[in-house]
Amino acid sequence: MDLDALIRGVEDRSPRALGRAISLLERGEPLGAEPPGPPGAGGSTAEELVRRLYPKTGRARLVGITGPPGSGKSTLVEGLVRHLREQGETVAVLAIDPTSPFTGGALLGDRVRMQSLATDPEVFIRSMATRGALGGLAAAAHDAVDLLDAAGFDVVIVETVGVGQDEVDVVRSVDTVAVVVIPGMGDDIQAVKAGLLEIADVFVLNKADRDGAERTYKDLLFMLETATEAGGESAAEARTPPVLRTVASRPEGIPELAEALAEHRRWLERAGRLRARRRQRLELRVEEALKRRVLAAANRSDRLGREVDRAIVEGSDPYRVADRLFEGLAPFVEQTQEEEDVS
Amino acid sequence: MDLDALIRGVEDRSPRALGRAISLLERGEPLGAEPPGPPGAGGSTAEELVRRLYPKTGRARLVGITGPPGSGKSTLVEGLVRHLREQGETVAVLAIDPTSPFTGGALLGDRVRMQSLATDPEVFIRSMATRGALGGLAAAAHDAVDLLDAAGFDVVIVETVGVGQDEVDVVRSVDTVAVVVIPGMGDDIQAVKAGLLEIADVFVLNKADRDGAERTYKDLLFMLETATEAGGESAAEARTPPVLRTVASRPEGIPELAEALAEHRRWLERAGRLRARRRQRLELRVEEALKRRVLAAANRSDRLGREVDRAIVEGSDPYRVADRLFEGLAPFVEQTQEEEDVS
User: Fold this and answer.
1) pTM of this prediction?
2) Which positions in chain B touch A305 (Cβ < 8 Å)?
3) Is B215 helix (H, G, I), strand (E, B) or coil?
């Protein structure tokens, strides 16, 4: 399958083409042709695929669902997908499996279970697990979200286990982030609230029929109230994330969750913030791509390796080596400094 | 306190100076003086501190201890520190607290408990939690390890929760990595063995008095046996990680663990691999520092921001924007290409 055929398949939402295209993004491998892109840069067939599809992106609602292992995220996502389908919306789910040694097993189990949805041709479910030295999981996930957006799905759901910076970077690039918590996390909430508040647009207290649910619910509300009072934003700009209670396994509370997600999206548009979020997403992706290009250039003809060898002989510190490599970039720096002087 | 005084304090292993120095590395903030380093680069007082101390590094044994939340890592580290002290060795512990919303609480509790060791002047314990946009946790942790090494501690232990790529990057840069598992993880081991094997020099089955310990132990041994047979290394080069059984809370098995760690270090030296590991560590740090310099340059006078704004107007994809920024680096690329032509 050449790139043109693959792109047509993606635009037709062919599951086979979508699967192949995402595999290509995961691996970053060439698809037979010479890698395009500027000489010496990180250009690849994966990048070319995204470049070609990019003009069609921007339509889908991008939703992130994150939470600790065992919080029932997959069951929740499954319920959400069924509900969205009943509303006539097409849905893609991208489940990010961290390659962490300690969480892989449970996630694989979830994946198999969620396949029950895969018989619906308007639902596409795919897990991704990749850690390239150049780019990494977040970059590949962002590419995949663009691809699913360009393919024309109404909603793209990105599910992650919220345990590492990579996963946080992944959900930061969606429009609306739901953070799933479960009863019994109350004791920890004070210690962790900064991290939770930073990313959550909607809180979901799942397994809300369990002992201790009421206390965790109240703790969450108290935490949000305190944080809003202490927050630096003006009252007009501030938005306190709602706390939804669900029992995904029954299921209960799913329509309310779907409405809360949709309401957040409407708020983003009303407040003029959707544009800001998408700008932030683009900036993050440019930074990733730039780093990839620089490292590819530094590794070309093993220049970086030879500088490291030299450093070992000379006893140089890592910053001296980085300076040497960076000095080759001086014209770039001079140019930006001239611009600074003018402004 | 100026930089000279801070460096003298670090070299004297003054807890106050060590604490201040590591805070400086966490924040990457200037210490009063103008940031040194090349114009436009990521130079900072934190970097200057590392540069100045770097010639004194290379003596300490660098040990990483990683494992899932709840595996008893901190109790294990506490026992290990006591044992090493009985052997007359000075020890520094760097506990990496991921800023993940979901693990912070438990770790904070551990930290308080481990403070019981802090009355010993030859033990230094410090937790780090930081996520800078430029550099991040791994870079700050690597700087802190250098600092503790230069301060003259015999052993530097880096404790992480093995959940994200950042944490894996942190332990990858030590000499010897111990991966802690607990009974009941057996079912998952097949699914996750690639990740475990990639980083483990020593396995520790902690809580080995629990139900299911025997089965997990056998599963681990079987996994290691299979992996060694399938491995690409020659028999002379291959080394199967030992599996130690501990009950850290009693404590049991700690001297054996200490010996296994020391034996791995001796093996590294015998096999000529210590140098290779430390070279890999230096290369990783150079890459981090180079990325930091490039992003600082791209952000200078908001060049990156303006390119992103332009991209939004023009509908450009992220790779086109990265190409534009990268093209300013062309002389660097040409130079490396010429070298390639010559070789």
Assistant:
1) 0.76
2) 283
3) helix
